[in-house]
Structure formats: structure tokens, C-alpha cells
């Protein structure tokens, strides 16, 4: 199972970063959000930390939807999905491999979004960095666990693809609130909420999405019926 | 190795297959014949576990078939166009946990005659070359169950001979091979057994000699 996970991660990263369009579309969409939001402010005006954190996580979410659509589409061109189904290993390895590949790509995108938030929205880091880093990892983990599951749901089904984000966004709300809560504190918001509460909430939802992925992926990623 | 018990398949109201009962054994080559739309590919996909039968069951009696995987070569190539031929084989080898080194993979490419193109992207391959690479993908895994759906499509005479040789080698090492072909004249000598699908059911299941006799009675062109 570990070998299948490693093979899927290596293949998806190679195809996305070295041989395909890379993250161009996902990055452009995310950056566009920062740019458009920056236009809503007056000249020299600074967006509130909460707004900046919200735009950051919204960009990350849109970016993540595109990433998972892209990496699940890799199997659909020549029906390699059927080849993966025949591998003598638990099929959940594909879900986990794609989640890990998506996690790496999302982190790369966020490396671009972070300076964009500072430049376009005039932010400064004035709070503790460690909780924000933890929140980044925990929220990204949950987003990728769920994104990999819903990417599987959307694969090969053009008509279902439009439903993906509709199903996806409400499920992500608790995780996004956690990310926004912690990151806005790092950017300077005085919040009565302790970051620990948000981090524990993110952990709980990570566990839920991991459990759902392990249980449901086999039903979603199947043959032609 | 594999038992099909009263397999039926429906797409909506349309019956594709009904009441298919037969067994497949290790160390044998079965040739599956039938007209277009007879349900050959559907039956092969059911055997591979890629499609669920509407009724009946496809049961592997040999646990090795499941634990060592099923080699399936269908109409689609399962290749990644953005990876080179060698990278494609490396991916599938790693995914199956077969732990082959690059020299092993290159020797497989040599067997199917595309070693000089090992570092070319699969996306620029012609249909025939992609089919050869697809064949290499299946052969390197040494599966105990080998399901080949019209594997000769797009292959020239030399490749066809190579494939015949590889199919015989698979039988010799104890694999169960099921092969779909439209060219009974050329491929029947390869087989130990012929199955004919017609009228949504199994119209014939027997030795190639018996099938030849029956075909002669019906003035089939390959009787000579």
C-alpha cells in the first residue's frame, strides 16, 4: 500500500509540476481574488486582518478545487483509473496518494498567496507564527482529505463536476473558520478566542474527513457502473 | 481459477449477457469470439472486476489471482501521455509493488521492440507503439490472470508474433489467459479452448478442433 501511495504522489507531482500546466490556473484564480479584493479598498487603505485571512483561505479553497480536479483528470484520459483498480492493494492508497500530492501543491500555491496577502491587502505579521503554521497544516490536511474524496466523486462525470463545489464548500466551513480565526490573530486581530480552540476544531474535522475518505473512497472510485 | 456463475448484464432494459456459466483454469489460453456487440468486452470487464454483473457472480477460486493482481489489456491504454515509456512502466511497477529496476524495465521494452523510445513521452507514440507499451505494462507484472481485449489492434505482423510468443510464455508459467479476437483464423491455433458469444449467451465452449468442425459445417471462411 505504501508503494502505491508513493507511486501516485510521485507521478502526480511529476505530471503537474514538470509536464503539465502546473499550478498556473489555480494560482491565477487565487491571485485574481486578492487583486479584486484589493480594488475594493481606497488608496493607502489597509484591509482588516480578518478580511485578509478570509481572502487567503478563500483563494486556497478555490485553488484546491482546481488542483484536485486536475490530478484526478490525469487518470481519465486513457482510463488509467481501471488500471489502478486492478492493482493488488487497497484502493484507499490512491485516495491518500492524491491527497498528499494535492497537499504539496496547495502548500506551493499558498507560498505565493502569502506574499500576495501582504502586498495587495497591506498586512503585517504581528502575532505568534506557530499557531498560524499549525493552522495552515491542519486546515490544509482536512481540505486535502476532503478534496481527494470529492475529486474522486467528480472524475469522469462531466455532469457531476458542477456539483463538486456545491457539496464541497459547506463541508469546509468549520475548517475555514478555524484557519481564518487563527491566521487573523497572527495578522493582528485582537480576538477573545484562544487559537487552541480553533486548532482542536481543525483536528476534529481532519479526523472526520480522514475517516470518511477511508470508508467512502472505495464506493466512489470504482469501475464503469 | 475463475468461475462465472449465471452471469447476466443489463444496461437499462437492454440485455447484453445472460446465463453465462463457465470456468477458467490456470495454464490455459481461452479465445473469446463473437460479433461486434456480442458482449465480449463486457464479459471480460466483469471477469476483471471492473464491471458488476446485474446477476450472477464472477468468483476467483485461486486467492493468488486477487493477491497478485489481474493483468488487463483493454481498448484504453492506461498510459500517462506526460510520462515517458520508461516512467510509465516504472509507475505501474511501483504501484504493483513489483520492485523492478530500470534495467528490468528496459528489457521488457526490448521484448516488445520499443527500447529505442524508452525516454520518449508516451503522448507522441503512434497507436501501434502505444499498444506495444501497453503490452509491456501488462507483461512485466507477470499476473496469474491475463485478460486481453483485442490486443492485436494496431499491431503489425512482427508485434503480433511477439504477442503470440508472450501469451504462450504466460501459459507456460501457469497463467490463465483469456483473449478476445476477431481473427479466429490466426488466433485459434494459439488457444486451448474457444468460447463463442452469440444471442447474448454462450453459444459454444470447447476445443478449437470442435469449433473448426462446427465452423466448416456452417461454411465458415476459416474452415480451410
TrEMBL record, chain A:
Gene Ontology biological-process entries: cytochrome complex assembly
Protein name: Cytochrome c-type biogenesis protein, heme ABC exporter transmembrane protein CcmB
Topology of this chain in the membrane: Multi-pass membrane protein
Record-level Gene Ontology MF annotations: heme transmembrane transporter activity
Chief place where the protein resides: membrane
Organism whose genome encodes this protein: Candidatus Desulfovibrio kirbyi
Any single Pfam family the record assigns to this protein: CcmB
Family as reported in the entry's similarity comment: Belongs to the CcmB/CycW/HelB family.
Keywords tagged on the record: Membrane, Transmembrane, Transmembrane helix
Cellular component, GO annotation: membrane
Transmembrane segments: 21-43, 55-74, 95-122, 128-154, 166-187, 199-221
Record has Transit peptide as a keyword: no
Domain of life: Bacteria
Location in the cell: Membrane
TrEMBL record, chain B:
GO biological process: cytochrome complex assembly
Limits of the ABC transporter domain: 2-224
One example GO MF annotation: ATP hydrolysis activity
Entry superkingdom: Bacteria
Keywords: ATP-binding, Cytochrome c-type biogenesis, Nucleotide-binding, Transport
Pfam families: ABC_tran
PANTHER family: ABC TRANSPORTER ATP-BINDING PROTEIN ALBC-RELATED
Protein name: Cytochrome c-type biogenesis protein, heme ABC exporter ATP-binding protein CcmA
Organism listed in the record: Candidatus Desulfovibrio kirbyi
Biological classification of the source: Bacteria, Pseudomonadati, Thermodesulfobacteriota, Desulfovibrionia, Desulfovibrionales
Gene: ccmA
Amino acid at each position: 500500500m505504501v508503494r502505491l501511495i508513493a507511486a501516485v504522489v510521485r507521478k502526480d507531482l511529476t505530471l503537474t509540476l514538470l509536464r503539465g500546466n502546473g499550478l498556473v490556473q489555480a494560482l491565477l484564480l487565487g491571485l485574481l481574488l486578492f487583486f479584486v479584493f484589493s480594488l475594493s479598498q481606497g488608496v493607502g487603505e489597509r484591509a482588516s486582518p480578518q478580511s485578509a485571512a478570509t481572502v487567503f483561505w478563500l483563494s486556497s479553497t478555490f485553488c484546491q478545487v482546481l488542483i484536485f480536479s486536475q490530478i484526478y483528470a490525469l487518470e481519465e484520459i486513457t482510463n488509467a483509473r481501471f488500471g489502478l483498480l486492478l492493482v493488488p492493494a487497497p484502493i484507499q492508497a490512491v485516495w491518500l496518494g492524491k491527497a498528499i500530492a494535492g497537499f504539496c501543491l496547495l502548500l506551493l500555491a499558498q507560498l505565493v498567496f502569502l506574499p500576495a496577502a501582504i502586498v495587495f491587502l497591506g498586512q503585517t505579521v504581528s502575532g505568534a507564527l506557530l499557531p498560524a503554521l499549525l493552522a495552515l497544516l491542519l486546515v490544509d490536511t482536512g481540505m486535502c482529505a476532503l478534496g481527494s474524496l470529492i475529486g474522486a466523486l467528480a472524475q469522469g462525470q462531466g455532469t457531476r463536476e458542477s456539483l463538486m463545489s456545491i457539496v464541497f464548500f459547506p463541508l469546509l466551513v468549520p475548517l475555514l473558520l478555524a484557519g481564518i480565526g487563527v491566521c487573523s490573530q497572527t495578522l493582528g486581530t485582537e480576538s477573545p478566542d484562544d487559537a487552541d480552540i480553533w486548532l482542536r476544531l481543525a483536528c476534529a474535522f481532519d479526523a472526520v474527513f480522514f475517516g470518511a475518505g477511508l470508508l467512502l473512497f472505495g464506493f466512489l472510485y470504482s469501475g464503469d457502473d | 481459477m475463475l468461475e462465472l456463475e449465471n452471469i447476466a448484464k443489463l444496461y437499462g432494459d437492454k440485455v447484453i449477457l445472460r446465463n453465462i456459466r463457465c470456468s477458467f483454469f490456470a495454464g490455459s489460453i481461452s479465445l473469446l469470439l463473437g460479433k461486434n456487440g456480442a458482449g465480449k468486452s463486457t464479459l471480460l470487464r466483469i471477469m476483471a472486476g471492473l464491471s458488476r454483473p446485474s446477476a450472477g457472480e464472477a468468483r476467483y477460486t485461486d486467492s493468488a489471482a486477487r493477491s497478485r493482481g489481474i493483468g488487463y489489456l483493454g481498448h484504453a491504454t492506461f498510459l500517462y501521455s506526460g510520462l515517458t515509456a520508461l516512467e510509465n512502466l516504472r509507475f505501474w511497477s511501483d504501484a504493483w509493488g513489483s520492485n523492478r529496476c530500470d534495467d528490468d524495465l528496459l528489457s521488457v521494452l526490448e521484448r516488445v521492440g520499443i527500447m529505442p523510445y524508452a525516454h520518449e513521452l508516451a503522448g507522441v507514440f503512434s497507436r501501434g507503439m502505444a499498444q506495444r507499451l501497453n503490452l509491456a505494462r501488462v507483461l512485466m507484472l507477470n499476473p496469474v490472470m491475463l485478460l486481453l481485449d483485442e490486443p492485436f489492434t494496431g499491431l503489425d505482423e512482427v508485434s503480433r508474433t511477439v504477442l503470440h510468443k508472450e501469451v504462450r510464455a504466460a501459459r507456460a508459467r501457469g497463467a490463465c489467459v483469456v483473449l478476445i479476437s476477431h481473427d479466429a483464423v490466426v488466433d485459434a491455433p494459439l488457444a486451448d479452448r474457444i468460447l463463442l458469444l452469440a444471442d447474448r449467451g454462450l453459444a459454444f465452449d470447447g476445443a478449437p478442433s470442435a469449433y473448426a468442425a462446427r465452423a466448416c459445417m456452417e461454411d465458415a471462411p476459416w474452415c480451410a
